[in-house]
């Protein structure tokens, strides 16, 4: 079932969902299930599974370093299928421009359709670690907008090199990313909003936001998005702070601001166990206000450990 249909069916009730990261290649999928299991009592209608970009590794061959491209966390679509099968819940694979040709994307979408996956999250992906800026993959999309168009075309039977008339067309519901504090490369929030509008005009059905720690940023963003004429659900993404280093890492990686009260509370912690508790309390406070404001879904970034998400969800759902 589509994410947008879940939202409609909920009839104004805020839903719970979360995002997981595939295990590192070679690790057991049971670790993933162990993190999902405690969250299933909150009845997520859908679970997102991220996709990581490929990266370079250097293999020592008798003193010479061999540079190879590899994907450290492969298996997004397979994991989506296995979660769907195991828990009878909808799954949303993240589909990236970076690292994929348009043909590879088409095959991946065909797989998703065969597997009964009804939703995909269309993203550009970040620059590779060695790159200063995002370099589009040869034969791939430059921006998420192009990917959204490709998925919408496929929904109409328009494949890359042929139109296929069939009564079994895919009908993917498409999510895209939105940035309450603007995307780090965007020259202004206004220009980023215009780009978001292009994605929605191309066929995106809903938006999931980057994490934010001050709800005012989300509420202002929703107002600005509506002023642009964007009328799709805007799902807030919530990440609880978990370690002291997040105070530096999160602003550096995502170019987001942290409220001074949160910084002070984390600074006052003696260890990361205490920081995790501060993150939970902040997450509860954020989630409660968002739920009371009637957001369609509270979507949590679980980052591989679910105890803090569970602690928040227990207070909210
Ligand atoms: P786009 O929408 O393409 O925008 C990228 C930048 O280009 C923006 O600054 C935009 O303003 C600008 N822009 C867009 N169109 C144009 C144009 N035509 N001309 C000029 N500028 C333009 N990353 C992963 O690697 N894997 C994941 O699983 C993943 N999941 C995510 C989930 C969510 C909810 C969010 C918010 C982000 C996620 N990301 C993920 C990170 C995402 O890939 C990065 O933030 C990436 O840098 C931008 O992706 P996008 O889809 O927003 O790009």
Q: What ligands can be seen in this structure?
A: flavin-adenine dinucleotide
First and last CA, distance:
22 Å
| Percentage of β-strand residues | 15-25%
> Which shape, going by the Cα principal axes?
globular
- What is the helical fraction, as a range of percent? 25-40%
Structural class: alpha/beta
Query: Please, what is the oligomeric state?
Result: single chain
Instruction: Provide the number of structural domains.
Output: 1
Sheet with the most strands: spatial strand order: 1-2-5-6-7-8-9-10
CATH architecture: Alpha-Beta Barrel
Largest beta-sheet details:
8 strands, parallel, barrel
Rg result: 20 Å
Uncertain residue ranges: none
Helix/strand order:
HEHEEEHEHEHEHEHEHHHEH
- Please report the first level of CATH classification, the CATH class: Alpha Beta
> How many helices does DSSP assign?
11
Q: Taking all residues together, what is the mean pLDDT?
A: 96
Q: What is the strand tally? A: 10
- How is the CATH topology named? TIM Barrel
